[in-house]
Every structure is written in C-alpha cells, then in structure tokens.
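Students often ask why we bother encoding 3D structure as a string. The short answer is that it lets us treat folding as translation between two languages. Here is a chain of 163 residues written in the first language.
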Amino acid sequence: MLASFSSRRYFRTLKAIDRELEKIDERQLIESINALYKSKLIDYKENSDGTVSLILNDNGRKKALTYKLDDLQISIPKKWDGKWRIIIFDIPHRLKKSRDALRFHLKRLGFYKLQKSVFIFPYPVKDEIEFLIEFYDLRPFVRIIEAIKIDNELHLKKLFDLL
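And here it is in the second language, the structure alphabet:
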C-alpha cells in the first residue's frame, strides 16, 4: 500500500510531523500526562519494549461519554414507520440519581411521559437509549418496546405532529 504513495510526499509528511513534535514542550506534556493520571481517568501499562501505553479506564470512558451525552439527539426520519417506541423502567431507589438522569434525558430528547416510569416516542431510538442505559449502568432495569398500536394513539399523534 505504501508503494502507491510517492516517496517525496511521504518524506514531506514525515518532516511536517517532526516539526510539529518539536513544538511540544516536553515538560508541559509530562505535567499534562501526570494530571490525567492523577485524575484517575487513565491507567498506564509498561510494554515489554520499554514504552508506556496510556489507557483510558472506565472512569475516563464515562467522562468522555459525558461530552457526547450533552449532544445526544434523535434523528427524525421523513416518514413515520407507524411504530411506537416505549421505554419502561423500574430502577431501585439506591440508583435514584441515575433514574432521575434517565428521565431528564428522555424528556430532553422529546419523549412523552405516559406514566412515571413509562415514556413513548414515535421514531427509532434504540442506539440513543442503549447509550443512556450503558452510560448510567441501568441495563437490568430498562426495557425498550416497539408497539404498533396504543389505545390513546390519536392523542399521541397530535402531540408528535403525526396527523
């Protein structure tokens, strides 16, 4: 695959990388890595060849996901497929903060609250809900249901502008 690139272009790229690496203040880099390590967001592993690998740990992954969490949106298809997505949950009191956070996100995403722990939405949401379930570690307590009929459908269609 490398043969398909011109050698001149290859060496130009290497020189550009080298120039950028020279701009890095080594002391500042070490301080930044130490701060990350002290924040308990990363772990390090010493490799057999003497190098060190920095690895994002579970806390670091959750922190990284936080930034995506604020941008979480559901893409609305042009045409409704006629299915209702119902999220039901029974989350223990000891996980009250996670339960409240899940409710908050469901409301923010546009879900309608049918009951205290039952929310409904007319468009595909599996990936987004799976993300929330994983982020808050609620897998055993949350169910996702797809339904084709619900008794108060007319009311729901009005709410979601589907008429």
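Translate back mentally: The first helix runs from residue 7 to 23. Keep this in mind for the problem set.
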